[in-house]
Design brief:
6 strands, 17 helices, two-stranded antiparallel sheet, globular, 2-methylcitrate dehydratase PrpD, 60s Ribosomal Protein L30, Chain: A, alpha+beta
Length: about 425
């Protein structure tokens, strides 16, 4: 447990663990998903000026999503931001964070610097993602509930740990890097709904690169800047929750990939309704029950914009039942919130909180006009066959990038050539 030697000692030991094959396989899928989300985020163009400024300020050879190059720390910042720009990247509910967008950009940038192959990148990224989850579990829900964004805070420590693994640090250098990270990790939930939310992910990735390179250059830090007196945990509402080194089953195995382009709180209900085979004309009413947490996050009853639609149980449920692809970003428009058929159906949908459900569960009861009742339930933590997950991620990538580009990216992400993979990140 982390209490026996502390979370910092646990992370240092973990940085040298052998990565299980199933964890690395899941990381390959997350790498593919991260890249698809990042390329789409770059195409969205909202951060084009931001990226250009960073590339001008920090010139270098490292690949930027969508095109261009920059120095390693700037590349990590840009790529972390772009890959979280659409908020369509993976999540881990154990600590409510988006691990890949913080870790992969850091490890990718440094992999290019040292000429690593893709297998080495995947190995380091797996350690980093798992490390971010362990850190998030140790910080606990109080840290998140008080207002810190775990993607940015725990994610920065994960990025640092992944970088330490990649660069072959010994225990002392890893300790120094984590200590340096403790003075830089930051990010607030107050930024949700603004461009600063994806920037939080980019800042975490940049922190991982800089903390590692500074430690490598001999910069020292507090012996335990994460868990020691006046350290990160003590000053950032960390709970010091007990954490164990992962053995056979790593937390990355239960990572949750997004298959709908909306708030993750809606996904359990959409996964339940999607295959239900219901005829909307036969529905009298629908009752969605969800964890209380989501009632203030994604329960806009009558959204008027495409953005608000991404945070509405009633809207997205009506969309999926009427055959609109909820995995296609382009479908979330202002116009679809005013569609007569959708408005009529969503007015027959009720949403209520159910404390006995977990944050990853939803229960749905459907009353048909003939008086029959249908019930559905889904839990996002239900294990998913790796081949099924891969197929769903490919469908998602095809919707984001087009069939040919998605296939090329998939083949590159499953290969061994880092250059082959990065060449797919800059496609027009």
């Amino acid at each position: 447990m982390a209490g026996q030697g502390g979370i910092t000692d646990l992370l240092i030991r973990f940085a040298t663990c052998e990565v299980p094959q199933d964890a690395a396989q899941m990381m390959r899928l997350s790498l593919f998903d991260w890249a698809a989300c990042g390329i789409a985020g770059a195409r969205d163009d909202d951060f084009a000026d931001f990226a250009q400024i960073q590339m001008t300020m920090a010139r270098g050879p490292n690949t930027i999503l969508g095109g261009g190059t920059a120095a390693a720390s700037a590349a990590a910042l840009i790529n972390g931001t772009l890959s979280h720009a659409l908020d369509y990247d993976d999540t881990h509910f154990a600590h409510i964070g988006h691990p890949s967008v913080a870790v992969i950009p850091a490890v990718l940038a440094l992999s290019e610097d040292i000429g690593a192959d893709l297998e080495t990148l995947v190995d380091a990224a797996t350690i980093g993602v798992e490390g971010s989850i362990l850190t998030g579990l140790w910080l606990g829900r109080d840290h998140y509930q008080i207002g810190y964004h775990q993607t940015a805070t725990a994610g920065a420590f994960g990025a640092t740990l992944g970088a330490a693994r990649l660069l072959g640090f010994d225990a002392d250098m890893t300790r120094a890097a984590l200590g340096l990270c403790a003075s830089m990790a930051s990010g607030l939930k107050a930024q949700f709904g603004t461009m600063a939310k994806p920037l939080n992910a980019g800042l975490a990735a940049r922190t991982g690169v800089e903390a590692a390179l500074w430690a490598q250059a001999g910069v020292t830090a507090a012996h335990d800047g994460l868990a020691g007196p006046l350290g990160f945990g003590a000053t950032h509402h960390g709970m010091d929750a007990p954490v164990n080194l992962p053995r056979k089953d790593w937390h990355i195995a239960s990572i949750s990939h997004k298959f709908h382009a909306c708030c993750h709180g809606l996904h359990a209900s959409l996964e339940a309704l999607g295959p239900a085979g219901l005829n909307p004309d036969e529905i009298e009413g629908i009752h969605i029950r969800t964890h209380p947490r989501w009632m203030s996050v994604c329960n806009i009853p009558d959204p008027q914009t495409g953005l608000a639609a991404k945070f509405s149980y009633r809207q997205t449920a009506a969309m999926v039942l009427l055959g609109h692809q909820t995995g296609a970003i382009a479908n979330y428009t202002d116009a679809i919130t005013q569609d007569a058929a959708i408005v009529a159906l969503r007015d027959r949908i009720k949403v209520s909180e159910e404390p006995r459900l977990s944050e990853t569960q939803a229960e749905i009861s459907v009353t048909l006009k003939n008086g029959a009742m249908r019930r559905f339930k889904h839990d996002l933590m239900t294990p998913m066959d790796m081949n099924v997950r891969a197929a769903k991620l490919n469908q998602k990538a095809q919707a984001l990038l087009g069939d040919a580009a998605a296939r090329a990216l998939w083949n590159a992400a499953q290969g061994e050539s880092l250059r082959g993979f990065t060449s797919q990140l800059v496609m027009s």
